[in-house]
Here is the input.
Amino acid sequence: MTKTILNDITLLSIIKRKNYFLQTL
Here is the structure.
């Protein structure tokens, strides 16, 4: 359970980072 939650958090952070990067462009 904790592993899946951690994966979700990392995925979310990656998506947020991508969105932020796209916004700066």
Summary: The mean pLDDT is 91. The chain has one helix and no strands.
